[in-house]
Structure formats: C-alpha cells, structure tokens
Amino acid sequence: MLRRRLNRLFGGDEGRVHSRTIYVGHKSCPPNEAYIPPKFCDNRIVSSKYTVWNFLPKNLFEQFRRIANFYFLIIFLVQVIVDTPTSPVTSGLPLFFVITVTAVKQGYEDWLRHKADREVNEYRVSVLEDGRRIRKMSAKIKVGDIVEVEEDETFPCDLILLQSSRDDGTCFVTTASLDGESNHKTHYTVADLESDLQYLSSTIECEQPQPDLYKFVGRMHIYRNSQEPDVRSLGPENLLLKGANLKNTQKICGVAVYTGMETKMALNYQGKSQKRSAVEKSINAFLLVYLFILVSKALVCTTLKYVWQGKHDEPWYNEKTQKEKDTNQYLKMFTDFLSFMVLFNFIIPVSMYVTVEMQKFLGSFFITWDKDFFDPEIQEGALVNTSDLNEELGQVEYIFTDKTGTLTQNNMEFIECCIDGFQYKHGDGSSELDGFCVTDGPVNKIQQKAGREREELFLRALCLCHTVQIKESTMHRQDQIDQIDQIGQIDQVDGLGVDHEFLHPPQKEMGFIASSPDEIALVKGAMRYGFTFLGLESKNMKILNRNKDVETYELLHVLNFDPVRRRMSVMVRSKTGDILLFCKGADSSMFPQVRQEEVERIRMHVERNATEGYRTLCVAYKHLNAQEYARADADLREARLALQDREEKLMAVYNRVETDMILIGATAVEDQLQDEAAQTMEALQGAGMKVWVLTGDKMETAKSTCYACGLFKKNTELLELTLRTLEDGGRSREERLHDLLLEYHKKAVQDAPPVKLGITRSWSVAGHDYGFIIDGASLSMVLSSSSEPNSRRYKNLFLQICQNCTAVLCCRMAPLQKAQIVKLVKNSKGNPITLSVGDGANDVSMILEAHVGIGIKGKEGRQAVKNSDYAIPKLKHLKKLLLAHGHLYYVRIAHLVQYFFYKNLCFILPQFLYQFFCGYSQQPLYDAAYLTMYNICFTSMPILAYSLLEQHICIEVLLEHSTLYRNIAKNAMLRWKLFLYWTALGIFHGLVFFFGVRFLFSNPALQDNGQVFGNWSYGTIVFTVLVFTVTLKLALDTRHWTWINHFVIWGSLAFYVFFSFFWGGIIWPFLKHQRLYFVFANMLSSVSAWLVIILLILLSLLPEILLVVLRKPRGPHARQMKHRLPSSGTSTIFMLSQTASTHSFSWSD
Amino acid sequence: MVKEEQEESPNRPDNTAFTQQRLPAWQPILSASIVIPMFVLIGAAFIGVGVALFIASRDIQLQELDYTGDDSAHPCYKCRSSTEKCTCSMTFSIPNLFKGPVFFYYGLTNYFQNQRKYGASKDDNQLYGDLDYFKDPSSSCDPYTLDSRNIPIVPCGALANSMFNDTFSLSHVVNGTQKIVPLNGKGIAWWTDYNVKFRNPSVTPLINAFNGTKKPTNWPKPAYELDTTDVYNNGFINQDFLVWMRRAALPDFRKLYRRITHDDYVNGLPAGNYTLTIEYNYPVYSFNGRKKVVLSNVSWMGGKNDFLGIAYIVVGSMCVVMSIVMLIVYAKFKFAEDD
C-alpha cells in the first residue's frame, strides 16, 4: 500500500525495481532529455549447461552428486589407495563405463543445445537504425532495437508490435515452439503510431521479465512535438514472444523489450521438479539394508580376523613385510575393514542403476508405440514426457480427473434456450444435418412464445455477446485440417480455449474462432434461429437478421471472461445510437447482478437443464445512457492503462458496470461425454482406484456428468457439502459445517462395515455406496477453518469421509484448489499414489502436484500435455495405460529390483563364507574378471529382457479383469515380506553354492588322473553354479518367452561358457597373475564337477519349483491361465508345456 | 479396425509385433501335472546316479598315514624339532590288493595356502622364464623378494619359499626284504602348468640363468637343482614345484606326490607289509598343522568322496517325496476346483 502510494508520488522512476523503461530506437525521450542507455542483457541465448572447458569437472561433479555414483567412487578410491584384494579395475571399469556413457549422453545433448543456441544466436535479423535496415546477428539485438520480421520467420526476442503489413494492424503468429499449439493467434499493433517508425519517439514502460506467457502489462508514452506524451496501454496482445512464428503477415516491425535470457521463452526453460516413484523409494530402502549387510559383513570379518590372528600367530611360511609390522594396529584394522568392504561391495551393484534406467527409458517406448493410443482424429499417439514413473502407473490409488474436456468431449452443441421463462427446444430429430434441424421454421413453439421483441433481443444478445471471429478462408487452407471436422486449440492471448469449427463444411467455407467452445455453440444456435453473425470489421459487428437484413453495431468494449467473475459482456452502440450492454455468464454469478423479478422463472429452467447434464448460461442486457457510458468508458480506459494491479482494477470496473441488468433468458449447451468414459471409469473403479472429479463447473452439471459416467449410481447415497447445504438450517456456516462433517463421518465411516485395505478392498460389496460432493467455497472452509485444531480435525474428517466414498465430486474448484485437494490426499495416511488427469491449463497445477500427471491432448490447448508426465489423446486410453501398461511396468520393475538384490546377495555370500576358510585374509573366491563381468555381462541381459518383455498375464486379460490391478496395489511386490523372501532365497542359494562345493573339495582330487584342484577351481565351480542358477531362476519366473528371452537367456549362459574358455585359454600379457589359465577347461574335464554343478543348480531351484506348483492359484487370472492350457499337459513329460501364443493382430495393413 | 485409417500418418506407431508387445511367445505354466512326472523322473535319475557314485566312492581304497609325530611313541617324533636332516619310517600293511593305478598324496592340515597375501606372493613373469624379472622381481613377493644383501631371490615369494620339501620312499616287504616301490613323479601336475604356464628361461645350462640370484631361504637347494636327473623336471617346471604352486582351496588339503605306475605295481599294490620312509624337513608344529601321506586309487569320479553320492541320493529322494506330496495336494486342489 505504502509502496503504491510512493510510486504515485515519485512517478515511474523509482519503480525501476518493478518496471523497466525502454527507449524505442534508442532515442532519448522526451527528445530534449539526455539519453542514458540502460543496461539490459544482450540477446544471446544460452541453453547449454557446459562449455568445452568446464564440461569435465562440472559434469563429473554433477554425476558424483548422485549418492550411488559417489559410493562407487569411494570404493574405487579405497581400492586405489589401500592394498585391497581386488584390483581397482573391478569396480573402476563399471564405474568408468557408467560415468562415460552418461557423460557422452549429456555431452551430446549439450552439444545439440550448443548447436541450437548457435543457430539462434547467429541468425541474421533486420534491425532498423535511423531509417536504414541493417542485418545483424540475433545475439546482438539490444533492448530498444526496432526489429523487422518477415513472414514465417521466428521472432528473435520479445517484441512489442509497432507496425504490421496488414491493414487492420494485426498480425498472426503460431506458438508451436512455445506451447505446442499450431493455431494462428492474432496480435495487435499499438494504436495510432506514426507510419514511419524513424520519427517515432517514445518510451515503453513495462514490468520486469516474468515467465508467465500470457501476462504482460506495459505502457507506451509517445512524444509528439514536445506536448504531453500520449499514453497507450500494452497487454499480451501487443507482445510477440520469442520463439513464435509470424504467419500470414508479410512483415512486422517491433521494438525489443525483453532479450536473451530475459525473454519469456528463456524464463520458461526451467525444468519441472523431479518426481520420484514409490519403487525408487523402495530401492533406496533396500539399498540401506544391503549397505547395512555389507558393513556388518566387513565388521564381522575384521573382528574375526583379529581374533583369529590372536590364536594363529603369523605362520613361518607367510611372514609379514617390515612395513606391515611397523603399521599401527588400528590403522591396519581400518584398512582391513576397508578391504573387506571392497571385497563385498559387489553386493550393491552399479549395474542395477544402469539397468533400471535403461529399463525405464526403453520401456517407455512401448507406450509411445502402442497403436491403441493412436487417435486418428488428431493423428497422434501417446506421449511420454518422463520415463521415471512408468511403474507408478501400476500403483495408482486415487484418480483426480477434470470434467470438461476430460470426462466430456468439450464438444458443445446448442440444445435449447429459454427466453423470458419460455422454453425453446429445437427439432425432434427429423432430418438432422450436422445436429441442426433445417426443415423446420426458425423456432419451434413448445408451449407459449415469448414476445417477438424479447426473442429477437435474446438472439441479438447471443450474436453480439461473444469474442467469436470469422475464420478467413486463406488461413483455412494453410491449416490443412479440412478433413477434420473440428480441431481444438487455445487462444493464447487471453488464455481461454479457442475453438474453430467449420460449419457445414461442404456448403459454406465459414469457420469460427472463439475463446471457448460454448461461444461457438451459442453463435451457431442463434444462427439456427435466424440470426447469423457475419463478422467483425473495424470495430463494427454485423448481424444478418431474420429478415435477411444486415444490422451493424459498433463494438465499444469487451469485458472479457474470467473464471472469478464467470461472465463476460460486450458494450455496443446500435445504428440508432442506443448503447447496450449484453452480458452472459454462469447462473450463480448472474443472478445477483440482475433485477430479481425475472430470476425465479428462469432459475427453474436453468436448474432443470443443469440436472440433465447441460452447461447453462444466462443472458442479460441493460441500456446505458450517455452519462453512464461515459463514466464506464473512462473507468475502463483508466484501468487498462494501470501498470500496477491492472487485473484487480479492471475487475472492479467490470463488476461496477455489470449490475442492474435485465435477465432475458438462458441457454443450454450439451457437452458430450468422451468415448467410453463410463466403461473407463467402471474399469478404474473395479481396479480399486477411487475416482474424484475436480471441476470448475457447477454442481448440477458436474453431478449429471458423474451419473452419466457411472461414478454415481442409482443407489449411491450422496453426501453433499456445498454452500446450499451449509446455508440450510439457518445457522452460521461454521456450525453447520461442523455438524454436517460429523454427520457424514458417522454415516460413511463409523457405521460402515470396516473396510479392509489392501488387496481385498471391496467396498462395492459392502452394501452401501456413498458419493461425496463438495464445492470450492466449502472446501476452503474445511481447509482453512478459523482455529488451527479445528482445521486439522476437519481435514481428517473430510479425508476419512472421502476415503469411504466410491466417488467424490468437487465442483466450483479453482485450479489451485484442485492442487490443494491432490496434495491433501497425497499426504494423507499411507501416502496413497495419486494420478491427475486433465486437458486444460487449469489442470496444470494438479497435474504437477500428483504423483503421476496425465495430460489429455484435448481441445483446451497443450498446457496440460506440456506439464504432464504422460499424455494420451483420449480418456479411454487411461484404462490401458494403467491396467495394462502400468501393471506390467510395475511387475517388471519390481521383479527387476528384487532379482537384482537377490542375485548379488547369492553372488557375494560365498565370498563372505570363504573368508572363514582362508584366515580372513580377504582372499577373493572368484577371479577379478568374474567379479567384474558378473553384473555387466553374464546376468544383466536376461533380466533386462525380462523387465522389458514380461507379460505374466497377457494384456487382453489385464484389460478384461480390472480387479487384477488390486493384486499389485500398495507396492505389493516390493513389500518387506517379499524382500525378505528374496533375501532368504539369496542366502539359501549362497549357502548351497558355497557348502556344496566345500564338501566336494574335502577331497580335491576330482579328476580321474588323480590330480588335485586348487582355489581358483573352487571359485570357478561356485561361480558356474551361480551364473546358471541365477539365470535359470529368472527363466523359471519368466511367463512370457519371446524369442528375445530365449536368445538372451541361453545366449548369456553360452556367452559365460565361451568367455570362460576364452579367458582361461590364453596367457594374457597384461595380467600379473594367470590365475584362471585352463581352470575352466580342467573343471569341465572332471565328472565330479559336472555332477556337483547339476546337483547344486537343481537343489537351489527345487524349493522354487515346489512353491510355484503348490501355490494355490489366486484370482481370476489363475483360472484364466488354466483355461488357456490345452489338455493340461497330461501327455507331455517336459518340464514346461508349450502353448503357442494366441495373439492375433486386430488389424492389418 | 476402420478402413479409412489405412492412409499412413507419419505419427502412427508401427504396427509390428514387437512394438505392440505382441511378439509370439511361449507361455509355459509349471503345473502339477507336468512337475510331478518330471520330479519323479529327476528323482529316479538322481537316485541312480547317486547310487553309482556311492558305490564308486565306496570301492575306492584309501590308506592314510599321519606322520606328524606329535606323539612320543610315533617313529617321527624325533624329527619334529630336529634341525638336522632327519629320517623316520612307518610301516603299514595292506590286507588286499590295492588296485592301481595308486596315487601317492601328501596332506597338510591347518595350512592356509589360500591366504591372500601368501597366494599373491609370487611373480608369474619370473615363473614364465622372463629373465628381466629375475633381476627385478615383482614387489608382490615381499618380504621374500630380496635377501639380506639385496640379492634377488628366484623364485621369489612366500608361496615358492614355503615349498613342501619332505620326501618319501615306499618299500614293499617281500619275504623279509625291502623292495622299493618305484614312484613316478611325472603327470602329477596340470598339463597346462607344465607345458605353458611355467617355463624355464631358455638358457643352457639352466644354472646360468640364475647368476646373480639367490635361492629361496627355506630351500635346501636352488631351483635349477630340483631334479638334476631330468632336464624336463628341473627348475620351474619341476612337477613337485608346480603342484605346490597350485594353491589349495581349503586349509586342510592334500596334494599329489607320486603315482605308482611301474614294474610290478602297475596293477596296484599287492597285499602285504609296506614301509614308508620319510625324510622329515617340513615344520608344521609351529602352526599346529598335521602332515600325512595318503595312498588312494581313483574312480571315474575322482578321489574318494562320499558326499556326492549321498547328496545325489538325498536330493533324488527329496524329489520323489515332493512329487508324492504334490500329488496329494494337487488331488485336493483339483477337487476344490471342480466344485
């Protein structure tokens, strides 16, 4: 407040903090004042992260900030510094590999960014200097330069449009590179400027750079002949954003206001915050357990070593060096501890991170490739913005969905209207063409007719009160969308949805562009009744009336729509000089603003329409006399020029003008449901997910949509917590809220039979279904109750009620409230996984807030898609995305994680046990090559293939039986119980491997020539058993054997054998010790070794096989699988029966 | 699905089996009806193999003689702490023919040949006959790299230094006279160790290669005198040396010393009394070790080891038992499903 007053006192000067002043063309303004060039950044764009010089240190620093990489670096350094059992190569090589691959990838990406930067920065642009056109590099543009841009060029920086080659002072741009929208948007020049910009002398005052693409406030002072400067207001419609393309306009001139890193595009460059999946958290938890195991193993070994050494004095055959004798005892203990850490560090594998990353990255392609997600209408398939959350799709418990455009098509159709309380309904469906009845006369009289005058007034209002524009036929061709009936895009200028539709495409080449699809539906509705909007020409709106006469109205002001006011108005002056204000808006926001006498008659219609699921709008008008208009006009102009709080000031003026209106009627527009919306919702609910509808729409409409989608059923008891119910009973809202919450809580939570969480959630059987409805106002009361303890209590009550309801509807939500609800649920007890799905800019906040954000490539633009994690063309695709893809991804990655820990546990356990037999001397059991290659080569590919291809239940079955999704709910496959099972399995296997061979080696003469085997043979036998067992264990778990699985599993084993021969077959010149020379070949020449390998593999896998067989098949899938089995395998004696895949292709090209 | 979709859009995903996750796949199901017969078969096979192994192991004859001499009654007791060259002899009798070929092992217990530092204390390059490493042995041999006067030790390292140096001779008492049983020192080491991994420097006579080097401190004689009778069993390719250099996996181990393959003993040791004469050099008392001599023959599965046979029989029986259990469970489950 104080600041504002100060601003006013001192003028704009000290407002430098909040605004910047730009001297157009670098000329001092007013001309007599001295010109001090202000300092702004240049127009160089730097999106790259690295330079040639800092790449290595910076990249390495960033990579080692990851805790896993850092851990491996430490291990590596320990190996280098301390005398450790394994050479630094064993851990250095994998680490080097991982780091290099990542660095190369990031380097390549950065190189691409450099290239793109260079292309942008060195792009030649024309700059007008003192009337001459000069070509210079884009990077050299300074704030204040007048830049000339030609058709199809990209704007090099943020420009204020000064001049356009088009007569009407407009230009068209596309912002495909900014927000992905390819429609044309209209921008306007600053009004009344000199035609020769050379003589233009002006300054622009505008706000400091900020990232909101759709907000801009500024003021232009134009100095002419040293008079008082003319002032023009500047808004987003005057601002051309860097990155946008000029279309359909030969050339424009603009003055640079924001350059380089201060452009809105650059400011929007920040990445989204990283979302982490529940699986990743599980991995980290497991990692801690393994770290604990590792440390305790090392501690045990170190302790025992010194205990053992106490008893066994240094034997004569193995004397210590002098240096060792001199070393401090504690230092020795410490280095021993480190050595053991190094020896056992393979228990936490580097490769797991690589494999998980690769699995996620490669796995996400299956979503993009899925042709079921391909929508022929928009010619696009699904989009994956992040692959980190694939498995989270299988864990969703709460779905928050937007209504308009998500559940419904956002495809509006005019259904009926009511004028003065009389209902006007269109045709009875006879000979409908494109939804309109054309055979009939203009209006069907249903009951009685309103007066003709009122009728025409209403239709005129429909024709005038909108921001619809006629689409030019030239643009039409360029858009190349003739074959498509409609296409939805957003109008960037005002942030509202734009829809252009082609009306009767074969007959009339006429389309409309409007800020929301409702408007087009209304204009087309009016057309059906004989009033055709012909377009806007230089501030004159033309209407073709019933008598085929053209009426002209001068458009004075447009009071734009905004979601708070929920209405919009236009002021027009008719031919006769009358000044009229037409207003349309939501009933709740209109009724207080109109004279009360008409309200009741119309309210009835509106409410009836709303319960039928239509979107309703009320239309009102008022006459303005000259004084009233003059005042409104002055107020509006002043508010538009305000630099500070322009929005608020405008709002205040709008509210003042839009009062005391006369209600003429109401309209009903149908918003059709999305394809298969009801089936999708049913499937999702069947899968145990709770669907919450969060919408800005009004309760009745939203409720009817919920009924239509099957979210509310006939027997659902609705618990309503809205302003209406709060105002019942005549007590204060707070008290009423308190009572209602308690009452509902008693009903839904306390009296309901206890609901078991987890796999057997089956509230639908519980007998009574509850649906909960809350509106924005009540919600904010719940969330921000006056007293703190109350507020927490209300929140809990609210959550508990909601959690016991089958469906929850939140209506009248502001975008931020949507996010609040998501956050509330996300942080509630048990931290359920949430998913938000929406299509519009108003859903962005909840998409960003939820664990998984899904964008629908709908008609409300690309904002949601851009900010989402996954984008799909239609709501119905959500079913496959979650039930099939999500389920499979979760099962795959969960198995991957468990398997990885398991295989490394049974890899390292024998090495640990061996310490007990070698005097705790850190003698590795396996050769260094095996230690290194185990995770990289021998066992990595099968699990990767598994985690990409496994379908333990085939996709069709998953889609058919949505309840299968509940089997994996609540991170079922990564719970501690299963983790313990896998750990136990790993320990069992490790014990079997080690002691099996240990007993065999009680007599090391294993060949029939009497020769004996040494320690490396011991290790090699253990390792061979290990590799085979671990791989075959995976083979046992694989339910879906494609040729890739076969290739990779058998290939890995073959590779192991081949490698071992190769590794042992040559005296390697670079190796210090030829430990494995012919060890493997000798092993294979021993019958005993063969037999023990077979024995131990089988013994390890026996319990697993037994478990698979004895486990009672649960759920429908088991039965399903049984049914697919032909003849139940009675004739086969093989271990596994073969069923050919029954898949067929549903379509062929 | 729809006909008009046939016009290809660049955005349309490829309709291949792979991209649509519809690769033809084999979907095996481990059901009881497969597993039960499988288990029975495996069980039977395992029991069969197990019995064969068990019999093979049982038929292997074994004669173990502990000659540590920690008991004052033992003939080798005198040699235990003697620093002089000491010989002791033990007698034993073989009741039946000890079928040949008979293998003569020596065994050590509580001897940690698998210690890391001990095992790494050698220089493979030196042992490969590389003369450069004669003068400058790898530091991994410490503290057995240089002697007190900084002369390099060849072969260096703890492993070589501690080479087992007891020698044995076996004689058969025939009609009261001792008949020496010829012991064959060939073919006791791995073929690849003898022929490839270890090499003498290509210098003749071998002794010249060792100029300026010292023998390992514990060795009574230098490497080039390990077997002066046979050039191909001398130096680094001496088979006793090779056998020692292949480290044992466990602290109780045995190593092949000789084979009895000659003369009258081709078919084995006939029943009778034998005398084992031991030249007792190797100290084990300090680390509570034991020394023994093992005479054994081998079967197709190697030396005597009951473990494998028993394990096979146990696992085989487990398979059979499991299949019976499964049969019971499966029968019950089947009935349940039929309901």
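qc> Chain B touches chain A through 107 residues (CB under 8 Å).
qc> done
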